Amino acid sequence: MPKGNSSDCTCRLANEVGQLKAIVNAQSKTLARLVRHMKDGCRKDEESKESTLCGLNPCLKCLQPDILYHLGLDTDTTDFPKVFGDVRFVCMGGTPGRMENFAYYVMQEIGLKINAATKLRDMAEAGKRFSMFKVGPVLCASHGMGCPSISILLHELIKMMCHAKCKDPVFIRIGTCGGIGVDPGTVVISSEAVDGRLNAAHEILVHGNSVQHASQLDEGLADEIKNCHDPCKDNYEAIIGRTLCAHDFYEGQSRLDGAFCEYTPEMKKAYLEQLQSQDVKNIEMESLALAALTSRANIRSAVVCVAIINRLNGDQIKTPHEILTKWEKRPQELVARYIRKVLYFNGNDSESEQTDEGSEAGAQGGAGDTQKATAEED
Ligand code: R2B
Ligand code: URA
Fold first, then answer.
1. Could you tell me the distance, in angstroms and rounded to a whole number, from the CA of residue 186 to the centre of ligand 2?
2. I need a labelling partner for 215 at 20 to 30 A (CA). Which of 96, 117, 241, 351 fits?
């Protein structure tokens, strides 16, 4: 090789090594800040006393203890500010297994770790209904299927955020959906949630009366998550659109394959085409409750779902399990990138170096109580 080329090459390599060192250095500093935030967060939170949530039940403060029955937690036996005071992201998905996997994945993506011999603890195990894992500032919970199920979880998580005095937590649902004129495998980020009549409201019956709560989602958050998709590198599409939230999987979604069906294929076709003409991109089953309950509490929220079928082409999910598993990772990937971006690039990087001890201790730690939380691991 001619001499000039070899020295060019050395020079380029040295340059690249320099750049890599700078990136690693910047990330180490942010990680150290994150770990310190988890250790000291409690003290800082104590200064500003209350959570940023609004409009909650004024009687909550009088409940001593407040029992979060379905999470198997109460304010007497758990010090909420200490254990949950540092939560900034609440991620929810249908199944316990998916949310456990997501917790490990997010742990890796934000650079936290636990001892190789330990497992993340299911903090809602005692409630026997939902599962919940905490990875530093990220809480990952399963919500089951449908608005009634996610509503119960949300009531208890919102109370938890309030008791823990959390500041500006962001709630994100990751899941699956049926697409409307959308290729299977596409990720749909909801601009708003609408009901079967295309009303952007979640209706509940209170004392036998219909009460409607607006179901707008945070547009800025949807855009931020969409921006985490890289059209050049990701071999799938990510789009923003309206989401129809149904109260069941079969008749509520105009399927022809339920145990009962009292409409014709033509009626189904006309309904789905009407949805398509109104910019509805997908159908799922929890977005109305999520949008309504979070906006009532002044919490920013988003719904990120992968379409596992194009409903204009059929009803039955025939895609092989391995492919579904691959597709289910897509919303997780985008949301983990979003969290990583907020933690690492939206803050101030002028802090001290990360230590191995720090990043390891951080994974399941609560604010101000890293040692205890680490000891809580199984
Ligand atoms: C998507 O998938 C589930 C139904 O199969 C439901 O929870 C939803 O929203
Ligand atoms: N989840 C739904 O609610 N509907 C679908 O068609 C697919 C997943």
1. 13
2. 96
Q: What is 181-197 written as a DSSP string?
A: S--TT-EEEEEEEE-TT
Determine the Cα–Cα distance for residues 334 and 102; give it in Å rounded to an integer. Answer: 12
- State the Cα–Cα distance between residues 140 and 122, nearest whole angstrom: 10
Is residue 14 located within the same domain as residue 125?
A: no
Q: Which residues contact 306 (CB under 8 A, 6 or more apart)?
A: 175, 176, 177, 185, 186, 187, 188, 327, 328, 330, 331
Range of the domain at 7: 1-48
CA 245 to ligand 1: nearest atom: 9
Q: Distance from first CA to last CA of the chain, Å, rounded?
A: 57
- Give me 59's structure tokens: 């009687």
Instruction: Determine whether the shortest distance from the Cβ of 285 to ligand 2 is under 6 A.
Output: yes
Our count of domains for the chain comes to 2
pLDDT, block means (10 residues), the chain with 378 residues: 54 64 62 60 56 94 96 98 98 98 98 94 98 98 98 98 97 98 98 98 98 97 98 98 98 98 98 98 99 98 98 98 98 98 73 40 49 32
Give the residue among 179, 181, 159, 154 at the shortest CA–CA distance from 288.
154
Closest ligand 2 atom to 249 CA:
3
Using a 10 angstrom Cβ sphere, with 0-12 exposed, 13-18 middle and 19 or more buried, the burial of residue 356 is exposed
Distance CA 242, CA 191 (A): 5
Atom number, ligand 2, closest to the C-alpha of residue 284:
3
Chain centroid to CA 261: 34
Report the CATH number that the domain containing residue 245 is assigned in CATH: 3.40.50.1580
**Residue 171 and residue 202 in one domain:** yes
Q: How far apart are CA 249 and CA 359, in angstroms?
A: 42
